[in-house]
What we know:
The chain has helices spanning 3-59, 65-76, 93-96, 128-151, 180-194, 198-211, 217-232, 256-296, 311-360, 367-394, 407-425, 442-459, 509-512, 517-527; strands spanning 80-84, 89-92, 104-111, 156-159, 167-170, 240-246, 403-406, 428-433, 437-440, 465-472, 476-483, 531-537, 541-549. By secondary structure, it is of the alpha+beta class. The chain folds into four domains: 1-113 and 237-245 and 259-299, no CATH class; 119-226, no CATH class; 324-398, Signal transduction histidine kinase, dimerisation/phosphotransfer (DHp) domain (Helix Hairpins), CATH 1.10.287.130; 400-549, Histidine kinase-like ATPase, C-terminal domain (Heat Shock Protein 90, 2-Layer Sandwich). The strands form four sheets. Strands 8-10-11-13-12 form a five-stranded mixed β-sheet. Strands 2-1-6-3 form a four-stranded antiparallel β-sheet. α11 (407-425) packs parallel to α12 (442-459). Pfam families: HAMP, HATPase_c, HisKA. Keywords: Kinase, Membrane, Phosphoprotein, Signal, Transferase, Transmembrane, Transmembrane helix, Two-component regulatory system. Residues 279-331 form the HAMP domain.
Amino acid sequence: MSFRLRVLWLVILVAVSATAATAWLTLRQASQQINDSATTDRAQLDQVVGRLRTYGSQHGTWEGVPDLVQALRAQTGQRIHLVADTGDVIVDTDTQENRTARPLGTMVGFVDPRPVLNLAALPAEPAREKGVVLAIAAYRTGVLFAACLTRESVPVVASPTSTGVPQFDADLGAADVRDRQGVDEIVDGCRDAAAEPDRDRAAGADRVQDCGALTAVEPLDSCLAQAFTNQISDVAPIPARVYLGARGDPASALAAGPLLAAAAGVATVAVIGTVLLSRRVLRPIDTLTTAAQRLGRGDLAGRVPVRGNDELAELARSFNRMADSLQRGEERQRRLVADVAHELRTPLANLRGYLEALSDGVITPDQELYASLLEEAVLQQRIVDDLQDLALAEAGNLAYHRVTVDLAELLETCRTAHHARAESAGVSLRVAAEPVAVHADPDRLRQVVGNLVTNALRATAAGGSVRLVASRTDTQAIVQVVDTGSGIAADALPHVFDRFWRADAARGRRTGGSGLGLAIARQIVTDHQGTITVASEAGVGTTFTITLPLPTKGRLVTPASVC
């Protein structure tokens, strides 16, 4: 995977993970708070319903309930609307607070303060109907008594019984003892007012006796329970519905603290994850930076490990190639300085020795001495000129004047130029060439071929031969210089084109040249988009092969000058 994609996926991973985690934690926290709020609302509704049911069951009336509702409003903070099943509003906290009544909330509870008769606590048949009649009469009398006490502001206490029908009485312990006589009078008056005519009791008995015609146990119990409820409904507190809250009220605000804590936790995890992942992704860059810093301080031996095939791996390979090139260049520079110093030391020592001898009068100046000193100076000039050509060629600053050149004619010209030297050495110098045109600098090509011919003549003993060959393929022109000389050892072939290299180390500077000719020749051929190679066998001979690209059609052939 490429570095660009790795970084892209890293960013996507961090962004998606952070977003998903934040959304999940926020949703979870919000859902938890909403559930908690709903649970709280339900608990508040249950509390309000329970308190109202207790009040209605104990007091036998809804009179006086607004005070309780107001206390519940202050305790829950909710709007409370209590409405009877008949549709009459019993109490509304909005009205109590002198504000416009708002739409009712959705939290609804049913308040039924009527007791449920426990038939199991009544005598068995046939006395059960009578027990129901007595329970009806007891509740009607008791609830009317409790309602009267409530209207007179006398505390009421409702004691539970096994039948489910409470027993009502005045709570004199909670009454104002400063007017005990007045309270007793109120209680007595309420007892008298709660007494019902016997005809009402007889009516209830008739309803209960109607259930006796049923034979099955379950239907009889159901009928008796329903008869009890029907006979007390006209005196018991009316069942009511309680509405909690108001529609349109702002929802409970989510607590910001947990959400911020969740977001901060996700951000922390995302930052830590990003740092860890980025360190893993950017570690190769850190390694490259460190290696580059070492390289800048002069440590050319440092390399970076290469892993994978992405952009960073290619950058690491390029860095290693650059470091290799710099190291090789540094080594070549040191070798060049050492070689130049070595090559110039002996001639300069000779010149200095002769000049000091002349100055001291040790030797007598003559024509032969001057000729020797001139030869040494010319040798130094040739080395300096070759070094300059090589430096210009390697820097790409060597000037070329390209024209269309016939290689057959160029080789013949070079043969003519070296014919005299070949004859004096007893070596046959021949040309075997077909007309081949290339686009090149004729002077530089003659410099290359002339250097090869000179080396071949030096390496070939009397009776040997040197051949100059020109041929072509479909895309290339080929020039070969073939000699039958002493050849080059196999282990020396890789160094043929090195600076100051000589096949015969014992050969002197006067006969062996500067040792820079082949290095210059290779650079010139390379600048012509060609190649130069060597093949040799010790004692058999050596072949140098130059390949050059063929020119496009239509170029005119310009004759080459003297080599």
